[in-house]
Amino acid sequence: MDVIVTKEGRRQMFDGQLRPEYASFTDGQAFYEHDAISGSSDATDRIMFESISKHEDSIVYEVDDNGLLLGYSPAANVTATGQNGAGIFQSDITANATQEFKIVTGTLFASLADTLMTGSIDNLKKLQLIGSIQGNSSKNYSFNVSDSFLKYKITNFKPFGENPSRRKRNINSIEPPFFDKRLNHLPNFKFLPPVTKAGDRYGSYNDMNQKEILSFSDLIRDIGPLNNDPAQSNTISIYQDMSIENVFVESLRDEIENQRDLTREKFSVLFNNTNKANNLVGQMFEITAGESGNDELQKLDIIDFGEFHVESDSNRAKKHVFFIGKIFIDDYNIPTFVNIFTIVFD
C-alpha cells in the first residue's frame, strides 16, 4: 500500500502545521473481475507507476496565515489563489510565449465561480472512496435538505433594528480575538494574570475580556431564540420576588430584546435524509461585486464554538455552534473577527 503526502500536505509540513485528522481508502486503482479467491485481477504482471498527488486530493480550500487562498483549480489556466478577497484569474499565452494571469469579470466570473464552488464535491466523487454501505443496500443515502436557497432581506431596519448609520463600528473599536467572547472559552484566550511560583499574584489586573458564553442559554440571549423551538416559544417571563422598580426594568429589557430579535431573520433547514453516522463538511464563500467592476471571491472564516447539551430539548439535545465571519486587520495590525451569521446544527 502506497501512502503519499499530497501537495497541500507538503505545504503544511513545510510550515510546521501538518495535522492529519482523517484517513480514507479508495479502490480507484483496483481492477475487479470474477475470481473465486479474491474477486480482483492479479497485479503482479501489471506495470506500476509511482503514486502522485492529483487534483482530486484537494477537497477543501485552505487559507494560510497571510490570507492566501489555496485549493482546487478547475483547469490549468484558472486559479483563485491569491490574497483573500481577490478575484478569479485566468491565464493567456502572450505574444512572447509567457503565461499571464488576468482577473476575470462579468458573466465569465459567475460561470467560473460556480465551477470553483462545485469543485470540492466533484473532487470528492473522483476519489472513489470506499464506504461502509454495501452496494446492494436498498436504503437511499443521497444528500437532501429542505431548502437549497435562502434569501435574507437587508433594509434600514433588518438586521439593524434602527437607522443603519447608527450601527457603524470602527474596526479599531471591535474586540480583537484575545478579548472576543467567541474565543475566550479556549485555554489560549482565557484571562491569565501573571503569578509567582507560589501562586501569588504580582498585582491587580483587570479582565478586559467580553463576558464568557458558558451555556447554550447564554448564547440564545446573545443571538436570539432559534426558529421553531418549542422550548423557546413556550417560555413565559416570571417576575415574582421582585420589587416594582425591578419588574419594570426587567420587563422593559425583555421587550427590547424581543423587538431586537424581530429584526434578525432566521431560517431552519431540515436534513430530510440523514442518520446518526453523518459526518458533514462545509465551507462558506462570499461572492461580491468589487471595485472598478471586478467581482471578488472570498472564503469566510469559521469559528467552531463547540457543542452544547440541552437537556430540556429531548428531541435535539446536542447543539453544535459555528460562527461565520471575516477577519479584518485594524490600524494596529491586529486581526479582528467580525461575525456575519451563526449556524447551529442540532
Task: Please describe what this structure looks like.
17% of the residues lie in helices and 17% in strands. It is an alpha+beta fold and 346 residues long. Among the domains are: 7-131, no CATH class; 164-262, no CATH class. β6 (285-289) and β7 (295-299) form a beta hairpin. The longest helix has 21 residues, at 106-126. The protein is globular. 9% of the residues are buried. Residues 229-239 have low confidence and may be disordered.
Oligomer: single chain
User: So what's the overall shape?
Assistant: globular
Q: What topology, given as strand order, has the largest sheet?
A: 3-4-5
Helix-strand topology string: HEEEEEHHHHEEEEE
Give the helix tally. Answer: 5
Task: Report the portion of residues in β strands.
Answer: 15-25%
Count of extended strands: 10
Sequence stretches where pLDDT stays below 50 over 5 or more residues? 229-239
Largest sheet: 3 strands, antiparallel
Structure classification: alpha+beta
Radius of gyration, in Å, reads: 26 Å
What does the average pLDDT come to? 75
